[in-house]
Design brief:
Blueprint (H helix, E strand, L loop, with lengths): L1 H17 L9 E6 L4 E8 L20 E4 L7 E8 L4 E8 L5 E5 L49
Length: 155
């Protein structure tokens, strides 16, 4: 009788643990597509005013390389700050890391090319896509041109 109770208890505990909410999928590959070494990387929830520790630790991210980032918290919306050799830093804010697999720094000759992949997960066809830097005065051209982006596809 006692062994049956223990087995029943174990089964119930296993079921309850299986019902726990899944943690956020906020992991991503950080790509250094610049000509400079990244010496420090800070990732924090956007709701926080504290950057926390350097996620590279004692390592660096050389130009042309990438590293896998797994934040120590479950938030999807993140702020990312990189510090390059020489002390210059750049930040990206309000990045929904649960909807992407990589964040790319550089790519356009070291200028402001925030490379990304846009995936249509809306269930509706996207007819126009406009992207600009926050410092730009206008949205610029429609990135899809005469094409459309059907659900599930990306550019």
């Amino acid at each position: 009788m006692r062994s049956r109770l223990l087995m029943l208890f174990g089964l119930c505990a296993g079921l309850l643990l299986g019902l726990a909410p899944a943690s956020a999928q906020n992991r991503f590959s950080l790509v250094n597509n610049t000509s400079q070494t990244v010496e420090q990387v800070y990732v924090s929830p956007s709701r926080s005013s504290n950057w926390g520790p350097d996620v590279l630790g004692s390592g660096v991210l050389p130009a042309g390389n990438s590293t896998w980032i797994v934040p120590g918290f479950g938030d999807c919306v993140l702020d990312v700050r990189v510090v390059f050799q020489g002390g210059r830093s750049e930040e990206r804010r309000q990045i929904n890391a649960c909807t992407l697999s990589r964040i790319v720094w550089g790519g356009g000759g070291g200028g402001g090319d925030p490379s990304f992949q846009f995936v249509n997960q809306s269930g509706m066809t996207v007819n126009e896509l406009y992207v600009s830097l926050s410092s730009d005065q206008s949205w610029g051209r429609d990135r899809l041109g005469n094409d459309v982006l059907v659900p599930g596809n990306g550019v």
